[in-house]
Amino acid sequence: MRHGVAAMLGIAVLFLSGCGKAALPYAREMGDMALLRTMGVDEGETEGTVRVTVSTGRRAAGLQGESQPPLVLSALGDSLSAACLSMQGLSDNYVFYGYVDQLLVGEGAALEGVEPVLDYFSRDGELGLGAQMWLIRGSTAQAALEAGGETGVDARLFTLQTDSEMGAAGITRTAGEVFSSLLEQGCAYLPALAVTDPGEAGGGTVLLEAGYGVLREGKLVGYLEGEGAKGLELLTGQTAADIIEVALPSGTAVARVTGAAVECEPVYQGEELVKLRLYGRITAELAEFHDPMDQEELEQLRKALEERESFRLQRVLDQLRSWGSDCTALGSQVGRADPGRWEGIQGEWERLFPSVPLEISVQASLRRTYGDLA
Amino acid sequence: MGLLKPERTDSAPHPRKEPRFPEPLSRENLKKVFAGCADYMERRVYLHGDAGRTVTVCYLLGMTRNERLSDYVLRPLAQDPALSRVAEEELFSLLQYGALYNLAANRRTTLDEVVNDLILGSCALFFPGQKDALTLPVPTEEKRSVGEPENEPALKGVRESFVESIRTNTAMVRRHLKAPELKIREHIVGRRSRTMVDVLYLDGIADPATVERVGRRLDDVDIDGVEAAGNIEEYLVDHLNTPFPTMPYTQRPDRFCQALLEGRVGVMADGLPFAWMLPGTIDQFFKTGQDRAFHWMTASALNVIRWLCALATILIPGLYIALVTFHPEAIPVKLALSIVAAKQEVPFSTVFEVLIMLLAFEVLQEAGLRLPSPIGATVSILGGLVVGNAAVEAHIVSPAVLIAVAIAGVAGYAMPSQDFAAALRLWRFLLAILASAAGLFGLAAGCAALIYHLASLETFGVPYLAPFTNGAGEPRGHPNLLRPPLPRMKWRDGARHTLNRRNQR
To answer: What ipTM was assigned to the predicted interfaces of this complex?
Structure first.
């Protein structure tokens, strides 16, 4: 008993004297913090510098009132750490990075390479790789954050993320997913956003989907847009709000793609990879058509869908092969199909991927939830 | 002796005086013992009207029942003609063995015995020239009637509760357990109060070593009187330096009998309307008398909820302090924004807010308990609603803190044992202070200390955490977090060392 009391007194004296300060976490009041929600990274105006722009959401900046706009801070530094640290001096509140869940990377920074940014996110005590990562196409992250005005951009980014989970918008990726793709395959894709004028966008939306940026060795090599972007979604099995209109003799049929899966099968001759066969399977819902269609029209619609999806797959693979960027991990599928032979060709995959012949086939199945299909 | 030093007094314990009254047994000495006692009465009676043969009846007014004394003792003494005819030397035996109608008649030879009998409600008969006295128990039965257990209400169970009379309580137990194996050992505790404390157990089931240990500790209790539960509890328990109760008690005879059937040893004290069930393990404080009455799934779910409530009541304030003050990144974003919004314009630190609110909660509870129930309810409403709401509106306290403290407080009330809930309240403060000093690290260290403390407790040779860890290769009983169907609960817990572990076919 006496020993216990003596030990407790000793510990109390240790901490009261300040000796234990280094061992204990530091207390901060949440009410005095600026809780950052979005962080943007751009290349600096001068060589070797980086510009970091951060934004709080609404009601997240210390004693910020309901009607006050989000706090946007921007700092230039020789490194990300320096820029983030200098941010503390720009705010009246303690700038807290623990809630950053959106990471915007400007086009310039992406061209220089995103790996240092992702590495910083993975090692920082407050930041994490769970943040959603976006590429700002044709502009800077600072411009994107400042374009948010009084409402900020975090709500728009959160909406895009939620829509993506519901299949109503394009694919979103976290910084961790992008980083692991870069580390495993040396390339990755990430969603791109374009900054628009609020007046042009109508309704104040300032960030619009602008396809996908493709990274190779951490650097931006190009964008996938239009059919190429749809092809990427198909290739990754994440179809998003894909509506296909097909003109038929008795009118226009509208089909909504509800599911997609693509399998990659390698064809070997001996130990040599001679061909990649891609089997795509899509399911579509007949969304709009005035009458039950006859079998001939149904077949016509199915063929049109298959051709369209085949074209998309061909388009995206052509672009990815031209950049030498296997960002959808087709190589992994080839490896899983025949691990023994993969060991022999794994080292040559970078050479093989752009050149190996492709054979694409897509099978579509149609259905209609309410009413007869034909 | 120095002028500034207080005069030292002898602090050695006073030896217990045995016998208490060493004088020879006589009516005069008995009168001296009760000198100054207004309730001491004597009445001289002529046997069958024979003035040559008298007997003196001594008793304590109020301790005896008048009707019994009159009908069973005084009437035969005054009216039985045999008493005037029999030889004087046979008179004593005649009265002891049949002339009086009382249920029992005891021949006493010492003053101590007679004094004790009178206090317990007997009357004493003194015969001129006789050295012995005859005592006849005619105690009053004035006591509170058996009512419903107020602290352990029954929805689906017996509606009787122990009362202050120990004999009524043992009779209730006998009615529930009609087994001759139910043994009742009586001990007298208290130099002045001379309180009867009974040890009850089922012979052949309860661990004899535990029975002996309980009896030995009761015999060792040498205090003035037993007027409160602590007078027994604090002298029987193994550990005094713990806020956690180690002697579970109940007001319900059915629950008490169930404990005896499980191999526990019961303790009852005269004047206290409840009984203890020993040894007390932690699971006992989470059980209610209803557990065996409800469906096993319901009972299991309710038991799990009680354990979760225990965790909530002890951890929530500390966890709130640790997360909000030290580890805000661990809070989900939307919740963090709500907390930030709620914290706006509150001038105090989170630590201060939580500790003050915890203190205010205890004050309100204490104030409500000390006052008569209608005023107590008013104080609770005034304090809880009016002051709480006003404090939030005036930005003295943030609503999030109020909610956290209120949830912790209300969760504490889910504990069937208020003794255990009180211990959790103390540890809640300690964990909140540790969290204030070192965040989650402090909270985790506090939790580790709590587990260490609980694991170090033992009651009558049984680990306090026995339901979860028996140690030393003891056979375990049934799961305690859940209540299995009764047909599958065939074994008594091994940690209690019961002589017979099987409780059903």
So the answer is: 0.74
Could you tell me if B332 lies within 8 Å of chain A, comparing CB atoms? no
pLDDT tens, position by position, A220-254: 999 999 899 999 999 998 877 788 888 888 788 88
One of 3.90.226.10, 3.40.630.30, 3.40.50.1240, 3.30.300.210 is the CATH number of A233-372, namely 3.30.300.210
Contact B438 A25 (CB under 8 A): yes
B326 in contact with chain A, both atoms CB, cutoff 8 A: yes
Q: What is the DSSP string of A187-203?
A: EEEEEEEEE--HHHHSS
Q: How many domains are contained in chain B?
A: 3
Q: Assess if residue B243 is contained within a domain.
A: yes
What pTM, to 2 d.p., does this model score? 0.81
Quote the domain boundaries for residue B89. 27-137
E-only strand ranges, B82-181: 106-108, 122-126, 133-137
In a domain, B143, yes or no: no
Q: Which chain B residues contact residue A99 at CB under 8 A?
A: 328-329, 333, 336
Q: How far apart are the C-alpha atoms of A255 and B96, rounded to whole Å?
A: 110
Determine the Cα–Cα distance for residues B41 and A75; give it in Å rounded to an integer.
Answer: 100
CATH 3.30.300.210 placement within chain A: 233-372
List the single residue in B343, B436, B439 with the smallest CB-CB distance to A30. Answer: B343
Q: Half-sphere exposure (CA, 13 Å, Cβ side) for B202?
A: 23
How far, rounded to the nearest angstrom, does the alpha carbon of residue B75 sit from its chain's CA centroid?
42
Contact of A26 with chain B, judged by CB distance below 8 Å, is answered with yes
- Choose among B314, B312, B318, B316: nearest CA to B435: B318
